Each structure stands twice: as C-alpha cells, then as structure tokens.
Amino acid sequence: MTKSQTSKVTPWEVSGNIDYNKLIKEFGVSKIDEKTLKRIEKHTKEIHYMLRRKVFFAHRDLNWLLDEYEKGNKFFLYTGRAPSGPVHLGHLLPWIFTKWLQDKFGVELWFQFPDEEKFLFKQDLSFEDSQKYLNENMLDVIALGFDPKKTHFIIDTQHANLMYKEAIKVAKKINFSMVKSSFGLTDQANIGSIFYTSMQAVPTFLPSVIKGKNIPCLIPHAIDQDPHFRLTRDIMPKLGYYKPASIQCIFLPPLSGTEGKMSSSEDITIFTTDSPKEVERKINKYAFSGGQATIEEHRKKGGNPDIDVCFQYLKMFFEEDDKKLAQIEKDYKSGKLLTGELKKYTIEKINSFLKEHQKKRESAKKDVERFIYKN
Ligand code: TRP
Prior knowledge:
This protein is of the alpha/beta class. The protein has helices at 20-27, 34-44, 49-52, 62-70, 89-105, 117-121, 127-143, 160-171, 176-183, 191-201, 206-211, 226-235, 276-286, 295-301, 309-318, 322-334, 339-364, 368-371; strands spanning 8-10, 13-15, 30-31, 56-60, 76-80, 109-113, 151-155, 217-222, 245-249. 41% of the residues are buried.
C-alpha cells in the first residue's frame, strides 16, 4: 500500500494517512496523559480498553470537568449521529465508549440526531431518505444498552420548537468568514449548511436551559467533529454557559487499509445489519492484510499488525482481553499466526458481536418512543 502524502480531516471529509499527533497540534486539543487517566480511574475503578489503547486519545478541559465532578457538580454527556445511511462498525465505536461513561459516572446522555445535516451537505440525499435512516439509526443506538431513564434523543426537525430559539443565539455570534475558515465552506455553500453548526452547538447547553442552571457538558466524539465544538467553545461564555469539555477518538479504518475512516460511501463496509456470511465474505475478500504474499514468506518474515485491518479491528473494538491481543500481535509478527487464521478469528469476533446487536436492535423497535425527549 502506498501511503498518501496528504490527508484531510473535516466534519464532512476524512481521507489519507492521518497523523493524529499533527492533528492534536493543528486542532489545539490535548493528549490524554497518564495523570488524567489515573484521575478517571479513581471514579470508574477501571480504564476502558479504548482509553488504554489510545483509541480515545485527546480531550479538551477534561481536568476541569473532573474538578467540577469532584465538587459535586455532575456533568451530562452529549453525542450524536446525522442520519445519512445505515450504521456501520465505525459509528458504534464512540457510542460504546459513551455508554461506558454513562454507566460509570451515572450521568444523563443527550443524543442528537441532526436529521437536516446530511440532507443539507449531500447533494443526492432527500429529506425523506434521511427520515428513513433516522428511524433505522435510532435502533442501533438503543441496541447498545443506554439507560432509557437517563438518555434523551433530540431530533433537530422534531424538536425545532426547543432547538431553534437557542440556535439563533449561537448563529448571531458566528459570521460567514468564521464558518468558511473553520469548515472550509466556500461562497457556493448553500445557506442551510452555513447555519448548521449552530444547531450542533445547541445540545451543549440545552439541558442547562431546560433545568434553569448551568451544567457541565462532556462530548465524546470522533476527532473530525472538533471544528464544530471549537467554535461552540468560543461562543458559550458569551451566552453565559460553560465551554463544553470533549474527548476525541481516532477513526476505525476502512476494510481497504489503514488510511481514512470506515465510511458508507466506501464500496465495501461492514454494516450492523450484515449477515454472518456477508461479514465473512467482506473480511476474506477485502480486509487489507499486513501479512506476506506466501505462507513460506509469512512464516519467515512475519506480518505487520500496524497496517493489518483485522488486527486493528481487534485492537480498537473486538478484543477486549489485553493478554489475548498481545498474544495475537506476537504470533502475527513472528509468522506463527497466518493471515487466514487472523481473519477467521476476526470474523468470529465480529459475528458474535453482531448476533447480539441484531437481537437487541430488533427489540429496540418497541423502545424508540421512550428515548425521544418529551418537552
Ligand atoms: N455531525 C455528526 C455526524 O455527522 C452528528 C453529531 C451531532 C454529533 N452532534 C454531535 C457527533 C455531537 C458527535 C458529537 O454524524
């Protein structure tokens, strides 16, 4: 695989070989250091494997958030999903971590479904299709086991009565040139897309509006969403609210290799509704391998787990057991473990996860109404 020289990370485009350390500097987020991990562990009693393995690798104001928490000032969580297609494995990654945070800290989660976002940004997505995906996508979120008593879905067009009057307060503080420089939008951008970021800002302070007091907010999200919250953070103090804290993850790679991110616009992607046969076919046929061309060569030289998509899926998502992961890494590097064997193991792991997920996704159909916020 040849590595691309250039990479791009914006909320609407992620491509190339992403240098996360460079992004930390460019975006101005902070690396999660050992001291902060220890502080988290004090409250959670364990460190989630996505933190241990630096899948969640950066943050803004996490120490401030923990200061507040330790003073008894509980935060709420906020994350979201713009319906634009079926949910794939890459989407689930930050949500699984969010669920862990909800369980460990016992906090509320506000989950936004900006059902206008992708309609505005994607030429060929109709509003009707975004509604179809909205209904499908909600099932995937519920299936992960969020606490219905502590989780509120906010759907931009259905909660417009709540959202719009707050969004305009944000919008008034943002001019076109700020949007152009933050998101790379041009003069040709439609005016809905220019306004959009003010809608994504609203859930960072909506619970404070509803409860009539300032409540700290923590946003778990993939690093590409940071430009939204950088803008939001500049504006919140001007409206009398706290700046939201955030915690960022890297992207689950696409099947084709360790560049870019898993995306529905890729030809081949693993969706949450794929059958075991489909998963098997996709991994066997398309998952980029860090192994050698022939078995003899592989036994001699060993494989490279760093560029092996299956190994990365295990590390980031499907193999929680550190010992097992370390053994796989060692055996793959030494040539003892073959690409076919690694693929077989990964297929089993994904399929056993999806089997459970699909069951819960079915039973989520009866719960949707309970999750949608009633004002
Ligand atoms: N813009 C996100 C997407 O494209 C959706 C989203 C809305 C979101 N609010 C968020 C993501 C907060 C993370 C955190 O899917």
